[in-house]
Write a structure and sequence with these properties.
alpha+beta; about 725 residues; six-stranded mixed beta sheet; 19 helices; Sig_transdc_His_kin-like_C; Sensor_HK_Regulatory
Length: about 725
């Protein structure tokens, strides 16, 4: 403590449980270390208020739930008489709402009662620290008052309010030369209205003049004034006697501009703290489907209180080293932050965020030379001053929040940056909770799907198998067992598909850059396509970041779906026409096909043995994989999908085939969403006329879970 070892600290403990106050008193006095701490007790708020009026108390420790007045009412009463007295709310009725209200009313600290005696050591330390800070502040204020007196400029005025003298402090404070103001009226120095100075002067020279007269005004400083803004001054005037009995006035002047700045800053930080508390409460109580709206409301609330122009939340993908803007708020018609920020485009900024540092700049021009990439990105969107705070989960950067002003500079205090960091932390925890709740919902959905299949879809093939087995037993005809085996096979297929959904769901393993063409060909060879199917792979498919096994599974399900739903409806001629250039992979490449295998042309390209006939025969199924602007497609020349059914084909159990399970396309959709992609059924290819599935691998969509993990751990 500032007062040294053995300092006298008096604590008033208020609680309606006498046995507890006695226990706390003993432990506080024992655990205060070198501090001479004494505790007096009171069992009601009303009695405690009277004690405060009669005794010297250095700190109040109060319960919340008391019979006459609760802890918050008691705190309000204390603050009405003792604005700065340390007050610690020590209660067993702990909640975030009580803590928030306590700090708003003016509590110094908040502590929830716990079991065990260790809590009293913590409480004693908090009491000692609170009193220490209180006494240090009081000493600082006394010292500051003395300094203010020393820093006051002194001047004198004649009966007309003109300067007759001014000391060096006055001239330095206002920026005027002494010769320039002697003989000038003091009111002429006013920046706006001179009423304050004139009124104070008239009152002090009136017959019933007070001893001193105080005024506050804004002066227009002189040429030597070192600052850019106007000068807010507080002055005092007093009448002084003269030899000729003419009224004369002596005055003092203090620069209170900085005091006003501190006062305004304190008020602003209090408003910002309240906004952060309110938005954190809102985020914590948000339902899963409300979180996006609540995050953007949080950005707006904080942005308006902090007088910002823009706030944006970016989620970072460490596989691609790209951050995508997921939520934002803009004041007025400001331009948007970039949709994506790549590491190579803003390396200076992202490297600091990777170290979990808060990044703040008064102006973008303050960036060092090695940050030219970051400066270019920020300049392109007219950023002036900014703060960027990291979003951290499991000791990894999962995103960041940027707060900025457009084109102008901005100073940021430590308190302000800490509060903005709290906003980033609250958003991180909220997104983590949303992800966990969505995953839990998906697990529940998969359980319901499994239960639905077991109770309904499996019952039919089970009844078929059971019925034919009974017929075989009754009639001693083993041919019925073949029919029973069909039912068993059907159940096996259904179980495999449902277990695939239940075990894998919408998650992927390790992803890497893979060639789409290679995966498609491996999937084709893994599917039993029969002898009347051919795969055409177009050039230009390129590569993508994916889990190879899961992507191959998606291709296999689409190929199997095409085979199950039959061949072409009409003869479309050569499948390589109309720009469908590529390499055909025949069904003979599949496992168990003819030993003749594929042949190679003169350039070494592997070609199906009967490619020309495969691409022209009307009774063959043609499946084609080709590139699009944002990904790739899989198309066939089968019967196709009616336009009114294209939105429902991915639903669980949807099938038009007697042998289908209705889960194949659902598995494809889960794999696509796990990668953060999109898939849809589009209009058929003009030269095929069958089904066409288009994959959009262009990036992370806002309505789909990002590939990276968010967690509170």
């Amino acid at each position: 403590m500032d007062d040294g070892p053995g300092a006298d600290v008096r604590v008033l403990h208020v609680d309606d449980e006498p046995s507890l106050t006695d226990l706390v008193s003993i432990y506080l006095e024992r655990e205060a270390g070198d501090v001479d701490l004494s505790v007096s007790t009171s069992n009601s708020g009303a009695e405690a208020l009277e004690r405060l009026r009669q005794e010297r108390v250095d700190c109040v420790v109060s319960d919340y739930d008391m019979p006459d007045i609760d802890g918050l009412e008691f705190l309000r009463a204390v603050r009405s008489e003792h604005s700065d007295l340390p007050f610690i709310l020590f209660t067993g009725k702990g909640s975030e709402e009580v803590a928030r209200d306590a700090f708003r009313v003016g509590a110094t600290d908040y502590m929830q009662k716990d079991t065990g005696t260790d809590q009293y050591t913590v409480l004693a330390n908090r009491v000692v620290n609170a009193v220490s800070q209180y006494r240090a502040k009081a000493a600082s204020e006394r010292y500051g008052t003395a300094i203010e007196v020393l820093d006051s400029g002194v001047y004198s005025l004649d009966s007309a309010g003109r300067f007759t003298s001014a000391d060096g402090v006055f001239c330095e404070l206002t920026g005027y030369d002494r010769e320039a103001i002697i003989g000038r009226e003091f009111a002429d120095l006013a920046a706006e209205s001179d009423d304050e100075i004139l009124s104070a002067f008239e009152r002090v020279v009136s017959p019933d003049a007070p001893d001193t007269e105080r005024f506050e005004t804004v002066l227009s400083p002189g040429s030597a004034y070192p600052h850019d803004d106007d000068l807010l001054c507080e002055g005092h005037l007093a009448l002084r006697p003269t030899e000729d009995d003419e009224p004369a006035v002596i005055g003092t002047l203090q620069d209170v501009t900085e005091r006003r700045r501190r006062r305004n800053r304190l008020r602003y930080e209090t408003r910002l703290k309240d906004a952060v508390l309110d938005t954190s409460t809102s985020l914590m109580s948000a339902e899963t489907d409300e979180i996006g709206t609540k995050i953007e409301w949080t950005l707006q609330s904080v942005g308006e209180v902090a007088d910002l122009d823009r706030c944006s939340v970016y989620l970072y993908d460490d596989e691609t080293n790209v951050a995508a803007r997921m939520h934002d708020w803009r004041g007025g018609d400001r331009c948007e932050h970039p949709e994506r920020v790549a590491l190579e485009d803003a390396r200076w900024l992202l490297e600091r965020l990777h170290r979990f540092e808060n990044v703040r700049l008064h102006r973008v021009s303050d960036l060092p030379p090695e940050a030219s990439d970051t400066k270019r990105v920020l300049t392109d969107v007219e950023t002036g001053g900014f703060v960027a705070v990291p979003m951290v989960s499991k000791w990894a950067l999962v995103g960041f929040v940027i707060f900025d002003v457009v084109e102008t500079s901005r100073s940021w205090t430590d308190t302000e940056v800490d509060l903005l960091r709290s906003v980033g932390n609250n958003i991180t925890h909220t997104l983590a909770r949303q992800r966990r709740e969505r995953e839990l919902q998906r697990q529940n959905d998969r359980l319901e799907e499994f239960a639905s299949v077991v109770s309904h879809d499996l019952r039919n093939p089970l009844n078929v198998a059971k019925g034919f087995v009974e017929l075989a037993r009754e009639e001693a005809d083993v041919t019925y067992l073949d029919r029973a085996l069909d039912g068993v096979t059907r159940m096996d297929t259904l179980l495999n598909d449902v277990l695939t959904l239940a075990r894998q769901g919408r998650t992927v393993g390790e992803t890497r850059s893979i060639a789409i063409e290679d995966v498609a060909e491996r999937a084709w060879k893994a599917v039993d396509t029969g002898d009347d199917a051919v795969l055409i792979v177009e050039d230009g498919l390129g590569s993508t970041q994916a889990d190879q096994g899961r992507l191959q599974q998606a291709f296999e399900n689409l190929f199997r779906n095409a085979v199950e739903h039959g061949g072409p409806c009409r003869d479309f001629g050569d499948a390589s026409a109309d720009g469908a250039s590529g390499r055909a992979v025949d069904a003979s490449d599949a496992p168990g096909a003819s030993d003749a295998g594929p042949t190679a042309d003169s350039s070494g390209t592997e070609t199906a043995a009967h490619e020309s006939s495969a691409t022209s025969a009307a009774d063959e199924l043609i499946v084609r994989v080709g590139p699009t602007e944002t990904g790739f497609y899989v198309a066939d020349d089968g019967p196709g999908i009616p336009a009114d059914e294209r939105d429902t084909v991915f639903e669980h159990g949807h099938t038009t085939s007697a042998s289908g399970t209705g889960f194949g396309l659902s598995i494809v959709e889960s794999i696509v969403e796990a990668h953060g992609w999109d898939i849809e059924v589009t209009a058929p290819e003009s030269d095929l006329g069958g089904a066409r599935f288009e994959f959009d691998t262009g990036g992370v969509r806002s309505e789909v879970e990002p590939r990276f993990s968010l967690s509170d751990d």
